[in-house]
Specification:
Radius of gyration: 18 Å
Largest sheet: 2 strands, antiparallel
Helix content: 55-70%
Strand content: under 5%
CATH class of the largest domain: Mainly Alpha
GO molecular function: DNA binding; DNA-binding transcription factor activity
Organism: Streptomyces gilvosporeus
Protein name: GntR family transcriptional regulator
Pfam families: GntR (PF00392)
Keywords: DNA-binding, Transcription, Transcription regulation
Distance between the termini: 31 Å
Structural class: mainly alpha
Order of helices and strands: HHHEEHH
Shape: elongated
């Protein structure tokens, strides 16, 4: 992929909805560096036309990416890849802290609380589920 081209493939037969396919592909490329920090994404309408999707579908993907800290929208200037790694690390650490405090308040022992996290991660990351 050239630095000026964002190539996304939508599989109409995939289990994931088109907006999720767009979100996942952009997020994966931002995280592994194929889309560098500061990379300007196509407009919602432009990407929607290119992919043959409704503008609302691409807009939903962009909103999810922004919510996850992967991209940032700068008004009329467009949407850009953000420094997502640090934001994601902070968000997951905060979520883990909240979970740990809640588990302790509920009286769960360390092993039970950890088992619940492992099961949730297995379910979230297991592609066969």
């Amino acid at each position: 992929m050239s630095p000026q081209t964002l190539t996304i493939t939508i599989d109409p037969d995939a289990a994931d909805a088109p907006f999720e396919q767009v979100r996942t592909q952009i997020a994966d490329r931002a995280r592994d560096g194929r889309l560098p920090v500061g990379y300007k994404l196509p407009t919602v309408r432009g990407l929607a036309e290119e992919l043959g999707l409704a503008a609302n579908t691409v807009a939903k993907a962009y909103r999810a990416l922004e919510s996850d800290g992967v991209i940032e929208t700068r008004g009329r200037n467009g949407s850009f890849v953000a420094a997502a790694g640090e934001a994601a690390d902070k968000e997951v650490a905060a979520a883990a802290e909240i979970y740990a405090r809640r588990a302790r308040r509920l009286g769960l022992d360390h092993g039970t609380a950890l088992a619940a996290v492992r099961e949730a991660l297995r379910a979230a990351y297991d592609t066969d589920a």
